[in-house]
Design goal:
Blueprint lengths: L1 H7 L4 E4 L3 H4 L1 H9 L3 E4 L9 H15 L7 H17 L11 H19 L6
Parallel strand pairs: 1-2
Length: 124
């Protein structure tokens, strides 16, 4: 998260399940340090965190269940390749059939266009 935050900044809130990794004092102290609110889903209600549950299922089915790994480096390498396709090429129903990178570009274009239309300095 710290590496991503260097590019995008820290989020205001993180929605997580009740796993031990998210209940740990290390995670909680990290969130406090960066002024991040932790929003825990209700125990036993994974549908409240549907996006990550869907991602986890897809990752498990397409990477973990489909490969026999010999070491952790192999898992990391295959995951790296899979994530590249997942984020840059694979269409996502929740993103109007676009890959995340395409959706982000389209969103940025729309926001830029909208700002230009509403700018007091735009040319008439």
């Amino acid at each position: 998260m710290d590496q991503k935050a260097e590019l995008r900044g820290y989020p205001d809130i993180i929605r997580v399940d009740n796993g031990p990794e998210f209940r740990s004092s290390i995670f909680k102290n990290w969130a406090i340090k960066h002024a991040i609110l932790i929003n825990y889903i209700q125990p036993g209600k994974p549908a409240q965190n549907g996006f990550i549950e869907r991602f986890n299922r897809t990752y498990r089915e397409e990477v973990l269940d489909m490969n026999l790994f010999h070491n952790l480096d192999e898992v990391k390498e295959i995951t790296k390749i899979w994530l590249k396709g997942y984020n840059n090429a694979r269409p996502h129903e929740s993103l109007s059939g676009l890959a995340p990178i395409g959706f982000a570009k389209k969103r940025k274009e729309l926001l830029t266009t909208d700002r230009q239309k509403n700018s007091p300095f735009r040319q008439c």
